[in-house]
Amino acid sequence: MNSTVNQTTGFCPLEVHTGKKPERFWTKYVPIRPHHKTYEQVCEEARTNIDREGTRRAEKWNEEHRITTFEIGDLVLVKALRVPLSSAQRVMKLLNVYEGPYAIARKAAEATYEFKNPRTGKVRGIYHVSNMRPYFTDDEQAEKEGKEKKENRGGTGQQ
């Protein structure tokens, strides 16, 4: 039986399952201090440890990830959901990863949006923010690059 202590629960699986510590061969030769807990105490302590570890992991994940937000009417690209076909498998890697642009029609939930085609008005569907990225027109991109060039040139002393 697995007698390794689990990092999350703080107990070995046998102890959580039965409430008793596993019998080790050396306990017959080396005296140890008895450390008895009832089954209910073991389960309650394991639940507390699981909750604490889950909270710690969630906080760490939330520090590294931020939910992207969009406004209604923003243009976005949607990740193309490709279904592999044996005949087209060779060219799949050459196709665009994202399709669009699509306009955001409404916010379905905190991180999901409904899209429509800006030209036809046809609804595309509801997608999570992980499957979309902002769309920049050529004017916006040129404007953004122009600002970056000005900032870079400003500190170099060039005329």
In short:
With 159 residues, the chain is α+β, with helices and mostly antiparallel strands. Helices cover 31% and strands 19% of the residues.
Structural features:
159 residues; alpha+beta; five-stranded antiparallel β-sheet; 3 helices; 19% strand; elongated; SH3_Tf2-1; Tf2-1-like SH3-like domain-containing protein
Write the layout of secondary structure elements.
Layout: H1 13-18, H2 39-64, E1 75-79, E2 98-109, E3 112-116, E4 123-128, E5 132-134, H3 138-154
Biased composition (Basic and acidic residues): 143-153
Domain Tf2-1-like SH3-like: 73-135
Pfam families: SH3_Tf2-1 (PF24626)
Description of the molecule:
By secondary structure, this protein is α+β, with helices and mostly antiparallel strands. The protein is 31% helix and 19% strand. The chain is built from three helices and five strands; from the N terminus they run ααβββββα. The chain has helices at 13-18, 39-64, 138-154; strands at residues 75-79, 98-109, 112-116, 123-128, 132-134. A five-stranded antiparallel sheet has the order 4-3-2-1-5, with no helix packed on it. A hairpin with a 2-residue loop joins β2 (98-109) and β3. The radius of gyration is 28 Å and the shape is elongated.
- In the predicted model, the low-confidence regions spanning at least 5 consecutive residues are 155-159
The DSSP helix count reads 3
Instruction: Report how far the terminal alpha carbons are from each other.
Output: 76 Å
**Average of pLDDT:** 80
Q: What proportion of the residues is helical, as a percent range?
A: 25-40%
Strand order of the largest sheet: 4-3-2-1-5
The H/E string reads HHEEEEEH
The general outline is elongated
Give the structural class. Answer: alpha+beta
Query: Radius of gyration over alpha carbons?
Result: 28 Å
Largest sheet: 5 strands, antiparallel
SS strand fraction: 15-25%
Number of strands: 5
